[in-house]
Amino acid sequence: MKKITPIMVHTFLILASIISLFPFLWMLMGMTNTSSDILKGKFGFGSMLMDNIHKLQGMTHLGAAFYNSTIIAVVGTIITLFLSSMAGYGFEIYHSKAKSRLFGLLMLSMMMPFAAVMIPLFRMFSNMGLLNTPTAVVLPSITTAFMIFFFLQNTKSFPRELLQAGRVDGLNEWRLFTLIYVPTMKPTYAAAAIITFMNYWNSFLWPLIALQTQDKKTLPLVVSSLASSYNPDYGIIMVAIVVTTLPSVVIFFLLQKQFVQGMLGSVK
Amino acid sequence: MKKFLSVLLLVTLTASMLAACGSSNSDSKTADSTDQGGASKKKVIAWAWDPSFNGAALKIAKELYQKEHPDFDLEVVDMAKADLEQKLNTNLAAGVKEGLPDIILVNDPNIQKYVASYPNTFADFTDKVDFTKFSPYKVDALRVDNKIYGVPFDIGVTGMFYRSDYLEQAGYSAKDLENITWDQYIAIGKKVKEKTGKYMATINPNDEALTSILLQSAGSWYITPENKGNFVNNPAMTETLRVYKAIADSGIAKPVTGWSEFVGSFNAGDVATVVSGVWQVSSIMDAKDQSGKWKVAPIPKLNVQGGVNASNEGGSSWFVLNNSANKDTAIDFLAKTIGGSSEFYERFLKENGGVGSYIPAFSSAAYSEKPEFFGGQAIYRDFTDWSKKVPGISLGMYTQEAKDALKNELPNILQGADLTQSLTNIQSLFEQQVK
């Protein structure tokens, strides 16, 4: 048994993918069954799909929630990527001792649990009159220590010769960033985009607190309210979960190649 | 310098973009509120957590109230119970009024905690509703320092739902299940297991529903009315845990890990009995193929002084916030419907299967209905009869903490640790937590 044969590798991978895909399959099957079939543990597709979709439409404004989630996630991701990449670039390229101390301090903020700052944050947004707006959801996380760290780490492998060549050609610092750094780091941006998008899309606690009226709610909040009843209808919940999961899946598959590259480092 | 300028420019740009986004929203909000003012409709906002149960109840109440107050309007906001509690706590802790509703649904074990933690936040209902018309144990839960802080809503009077077909097969008739003790229950369970191969019940070591039912049936609770731990030297507690362990040891209970597995096991016909609150009726009736096979008996009782064959699981009440702009309208609305209308309770039962604690409604036609599903038994009349026997207890402020302390020790108890020692451990753990 010196060699691991391709058959063994494949068997292992197939098993692993069955295990990780099972929840998805269960979710898709659940969409087509009645609640009590799901609870009984029925494994197989049923014929209730249209019925469940229909009932869900009657219960919630899924369209509005989808729109709210999309606005928050897309606008939030663009701003976060822009600000965090500039910060990461700045910390690494214009390096100095004082800046690395500042960066250390920034890293400490990652250790702060959100629940600890939630109540002051809520008061602050209330005083600013921003509660119940998408801005309130986006603003607290437009720069995160993790994203800055992520860009900084990736910038370490960025060849500075490119910047020097650019300077020789007469580019100013701003154009060095936009014309040379940004295009070179595309895979890093893709990876960061997926992570950030998922964070906004799935964020729950803060939107729950900050958004107050039904028409402003995001998808996770709607799913949570469906699951709350004493006797929840799991078929309907499964439909809502599929709707909620789909965009993340689509974005991941679109950016998959870049994501893997980005995780390995942009510049080889 | 140029770099600095461009960054500054971008920051301003982003900020203005966000601000634009924000202000357009707040514009529309102010427009909304002027609309409401202009139409002179008093719109009351309420938070509830189950659109097909308590949310639906409010809608019935709204229809009834609108008959006499045509300018009244109500918006029900549905959200998950945990979400509702999180939002309420954040708002109250931050001292922010914005976004709070006028009416809020409160789970009974939270009542004392809310009233004590946020004084002067909830409206006093003491003279607004005739509380003598409600089951006393339900009113006891709402009483803090001799004031009553809300309108009693649904109750969770418990019953023992059972599959009459399984029990018949094991040789038991309805009569054999009336007014039994838990030891008799276990004996019946063993027989059922032997004859039908079905489990008698489910057991979930991470859930304290059963222990709560047992304790209240003997008029006891996890904590004393003075909010001290009630684990040591409490015969009801000792007996509760003895019974709990006996059920687990006897092998008549199917282990389950969560709510959906619990519901799934009786929907699939795996268990012969379900000891639960009256609201479980709707989950049981979900399994349409089992129609006619279910019946309900009073729950077994604990063999201690004061033990009765009735208890309660869950239940909630409506509160009005003192700071709300529509406080008086909200109080009047609740007092005239949920707090004093038999018609409301009849419709709530017929349309949503909800049982309240309003005694005048118990003699109505709706409550003597005999559903086919339960073999023609007048289950609601039975449940309301039992509800009058439920011992009143004070739920205190730290019910959740006490339950958590118990849950922590429960595995040891089930493994056969010395009960007295375990109870001392629970008591000290609880006291550490609430100190």
TrEMBL record, chain A:
**What membrane topology is given?**
Multi-pass membrane protein
User: One short Pfam family name for this protein?
Assistant: BPD_transp_1
- Where is each ABC transmembrane type-1 domain found? 66-255
Cellular localisation: Cell membrane
Residues that span the membrane, as ranges = 7-29, 65-90, 102-122, 134-152, 189-209, 234-255
Which InterPro entries does the annotation name?
MetI-like, MetI-like_sf
UniProt keyword terms in alphabetical order:
Cell membrane, Membrane, Transmembrane, Transmembrane helix, Transport
User: What family does this belong to?
Assistant: Belongs to the binding-protein-dependent transport system permease family.
What is the protein name for this chain? Lactose/L-arabinose transport system permease protein
In its UniProt entry, the species of origin is given as Paenibacillus shirakamiensis
UniProtKB/TrEMBL annotation, chain B:
Q: InterPro entries, alphabetically?
A: Bact_solute-bd_prot1, SBP
What UniProt keywords are attached to this protein's entry?
Answer: Signal
Which Gene3D superfamilies does the record associate with it? Periplasmic binding protein-like II (3.40.190.10)
Pfam hit, one:
SBP_bac_8
Q: Which PROSITE patterns match?
A: PROKAR_LIPOPROTEIN
Q: Which residues form the signal peptide?
A: 1-19
Q: What is this protein called?
A: Lactose/L-arabinose transport system substrate-binding protein
Organism in which the protein naturally occurs: Paenibacillus shirakamiensis
